Amino acid sequence: MGEVSGAEYVTVGDVHSPRRDNLKKVSVLPLVFLIFYEVSGGPFGVEDSVGAAGPLLALVGFLVFPLIWSIPEALITAEMGTMFPENGGYVVWVSSALGPFWGFQQGWMKWLSGVIDNALYPVLFLDYLKSAIPALGGGFPRIIAVLVLTLILTYMNYRGMTIVGWAAVLLGIFSILPFVVMGLMGIPRLEPSRWLEVDLHTVDWNLYLNTLFWNLNYWDSISTLAGEVHNPKKTLPKALFYALILVVLAYFFPLLIGTGAVPVDRALWTDGYFSDVAKIVGGVWLRWWIQGAAAMSNMGMFVAEMSSDSFQLLGMAERGMLPDFFAKRSRYGTPMVGILFSASGVLLLSWLSFQEIVAAENFLYCFGMILEFIAFVRLRIKHPAAARPFKIPVGTVGAILMCVPPTILICVVLALSSVKVLVVSLGAIAIGFMIEPCLKHSERKGWMKFSTSTELPDLNVARQESDSLIDDQVFRP
Q1: Residue 6 domain flag
Q2: Which of 7, 34, 295, 326 has the fewest C-beta atoms lying within 10 Å of its C-beta?
Q3: pLDDT (tens digit, 9 = 90+) per residue, 437-467?
Q4: Category of 370 on φ-ψ map: left (φ > 0), alpha (ψ -120 to 50) or beta
Q5: DSSP element (H, E) containing 237
Q6: Is 414 part of any domain?
Q7: Domain range spanning residue 51?
Q8: Is 26 helix (H, G, I), strand (E, B) or coil?
């Protein structure tokens, strides 16, 4: 169904998160860096793309992949996030389009994917420091380091979004600067022929695609914080645009310098190798700066991801999908229970290896994205007159076609998953199918209290109003 000429916009998108008038909202600049850390955090972790496929495919991947995946996901996030500017983000999109059951499944898969993703950052943090502090490579010191780091960063989330947002700005600047310096120092050493090195017979496609996918997804995560954003209908699309440019540059430029200024030995290109490149190009001092930047970057990614995960749980509770205690805020306005749940999940999963974490979270994330694409297209078809402060300039057919390339990519990523990852991920999805009816049973029995915030519109009523309006416009004599 296309647009209905003359139809007025209706309230399916005119939603607002419950007011917190005494709390500061997140502005454009902190939001850009929060998105930057939700998606990227800098080139730390992209080294495996060179090890898996060589310089040419790594460079091409970080230019082409954003066109196939990042731009469509960011555009959909901008449209849907301004249509539903409340905490909960994609959970609310799917609930509105497919009903509360699938909304809950979306919330479960994306929250679990986010927690698994967040368990990666202590691992990367310690991987970058273990060359300088070998004791952090394993055993009891590593366990203690993970615990202490998680507690410190969790406390930062507890203290409020204003602190998290501006901390992301400062950490982002500190994380990007050493790569600018490395690039300037590496220009005289560049040999462009190195960028063309490729051997298709030795490409590890699974590792290559998982590395690209992990480093260029999660654009939708910022939607779960929409209720904490100042004027989200204008701020969110603008911040997504700036963040997209920042992320692509933050990946491509260091890879260009690293593969062009140093002879490429693919076996060396693993987690943390950029610090070795920095030593070759600039000396020990630059290596230490890169290692420090990596540590700061992982801190930024951790706090940004935890903010998204915890506010998602709060948004689900405000929609009556989770017990009321998830909706309670601390005196700083933060979702205390959601933070504790997310931190506990990180600690339980931090023993996994880098590759296992990336593969597992990618698998769950893929299923969640399929639901988002379906919700986006379905709302375009069923509710074309709904208010969309930012609207992608494509019709219904264009919306469907825009989702085709990323969906094909999802199928490829899923097909390349190992049997172990497949079994674990499907088991996690099955748990979500069991949790939802258990929660409903607890609500009916009165074991736990559930309620929907009165400040949020009824999505079912809004859908009915939209349908009635469309019928009146189409069938009016």
Answers
A1: no
A2: 7
A3: 999 999 898 898 888 777 776 665 444 444 4
A4: alpha
A5: helix 232-261
A6: yes
A7: 28-386+396-475
A8: strand
